Amino acid sequence: MSKPVEEDQNFEEELLNSDLYTEEGHWHVNAGGNTIHASRIPGFFRNLRWYAQSIYFFFFIGPYLQWNGQRSIYFDIPHRQFHLFGITVWPQDIWMLAVLLIMLAISLVAVTAIAGRVFCGYFCFHMVWVDWFTLVEKYLEGTPSKRRKLDAESWGLRKITLRLIKYVIWLSIGLFTAFTITAYFMDTKELLNGYLHLNAPPAAWGSLLINTIGVFVFTGFMREQVCFWLCPYARIQSVMIDRDTVWPTYDAKRGEPRTKYARGPKDSKAGDCINCNLCFNVCPTGVDIRNGMQEGCITCGMCIDACDTVMGKIKRPKGLIRYVSRNELSGKIVPGIYKRPRVIIYTTIILLALSGIVYGLNHIAPLEFTILHDRMPVYTEMSDGSIQNKYTIKILNKTPKDLLVSLNAEGVDGLKVISEQGEAFVLPAGKMIPFHVFLRVNQDVFKTSNLPVKFRVKGLENKEIDISYKSMLIGPKS
Amino acid sequence: MDNNMKPDDKEKYGSDTGHEWDGIRELKNPPPRWWMISLHASWIFVVVYLFLYPSIPLLHGSTKGLLGWTMIKEYKEALTENDKIKAPFLSKISGMSAREILADAGMRNFAEQSTKTTFGDSCSACHGGGGQGKKGVYPNLTDDEWIYGGDIDTIIETITYGRQPAMPAHKDILDDASVNKLADFVIALSQGSATPEGWNLFKRSNCVACHGNDARGGNFNKNGSGAANLTDKIWRFGGNRDEVLQTIRFGVNQDFPESRKAVMPAWGERLSADQIKMLAVKVYSLGGGQK
Ligand code: SF4
Ligand code: SF4
Q: Which atom of ligand 2 lies at the shortest distance from residue A274's CA?
């Protein structure tokens, strides 16, 4: 934190004086006018992207996975239950979702602080689907230059056929994606039958339609424009990163001035960049990383692969473009990851949220228990002069089994409990049937008009069920 | 003018509108394509909407729209859908006796919930939204004083045929001293301090015909008179001395303006048997009912 500022300014100065900025007063806004056709080059980061993408395999097989005879992941909206690997989460436990979202958001921020937009480059479903769509383009329409030519061509039989085939393949991917998403919310077999026999519920058709078209349009046509203009994550990138964040960076000191490659020994003034533009050609978002870090860069590392390939061929050291932080590039000693306050704070938040979720999942109450004190009338004077209060009891049995329980009230002397359900009764599995309970008490206990009482539900067979609910007893102040 | 522009600026930035202020040129860059697409998609949506739905306000109501959608139609459809959901329950209710409904927690809950509006429309004008009644005027349904009986069958009977009790006005039957003594007696009765003298007067004045030998009312004595229980703490028409005197003097439903009015209409003419059945279940549940 207390690094001399001077050093930093030197670097800034250097950068500003370098050719990089004097030459390029260039400000290019990619507004999607031209489709970006990026080359594909094999390399370390290309492989890494494949490995990372493979997690979507689980997304596609998810609707078919079983867990202890049940669907492993199943969001049952009509019954308001979420099944996750044998755990049933009810809407009442939804606070865990909030904690989960906090955890994921902070994880995203933490990862961004350490290594930039890892999510964008390797895991983001949008860019992953774009990767597949452009792969289809590559096999169908050929190299980027051929694709650009085809784009410019006027509509003939060849172009129409190629486009039709491409759109059909894209739509199929979209359709399969949409089906998979929808299947998380319905019985997979039933859903498939519904679609095949044209009698699926309207919501299922809507989901299929919207998701298919969404994938087709966003992935097929908008591509990096989604990252540029729609995705909120890229908007706040600059507040998440700092000078210690590693990012695909062009080592301008080493690369400039760019000099065309010539055989023989290297000119001592020439930089290592040979201006082959390969780094620009492989970039899926049309970024020239040599202009410095910018909004469009999703840190996929394709430019690193490209440049390393070139450097390998011309026998210069690799890493002209590499994952490096600004501080490191300017020759500063970089603090260890866990010495950075951001990392410590983020990690703490993540751990807190995680323990919240673990606690929540382990403490999902078997019953949801609420009591409403009747307000009309607040209390009733009975014929023997006692005071009666009426309560509506709602107990939801969240377990898959019927439960035998007892209901009692305590907290006031001489309390008489009259329940419509009797003292012991069965709570049917997964159901909530409200009923009334009356509390009767002598008028003279009301030293104040409000007395606290506690209702208590106890499992008669499952002794570990013992849940209380605080309410009150109201009467005329004596 | 263009002194700080490089010659290739035109190419780089695109053409301008010819407007320039202090060296700042206004460029003619086209808006992003996605933006244009959204713009066109939006107005196409508006036009399609304009034709499909009622949208243009005219002198006599708006255009009808090709889909023929109206708010009231949507409401009615929703109602029909709601009725459809309720239908199986309602047919089940028809086949069940009120006692059976009370014994089935699920059906009991259904009956109570779905009869809320009927209760609100028919009962709450007098008995209040929660059945709490009005002290001294309309009976409280949440307490345990059942003038005609609080078992479910009697409640059905009461709702179906209504009730119109009668208590004679005693101002011309008894002398004023006896009326006063009777008032003192019934007040003492509810406080548990009745005298044998009082009991004698009570019996002599023929109150026992309706209120019973024990003064515990028509329900307890099963004589169907609708006479109130005088031994408990609940007063049908108010328990202070003046009110008690008024009740004894002018009676109930007699031809005096001071006479107590107590008429419960017969709902059998307006409500179906099933509606009354469900209503009875709700009334029974208000205060815990009576076996
Ligand atoms: S600049 Fe490099 S890392 Fe960034 S998006 Fe382009 S290819 Fe990927
Ligand atoms: S790939 Fe490497 S050598 Fe080629 S232009 Fe890019 S930075 Fe320069």
A: 3
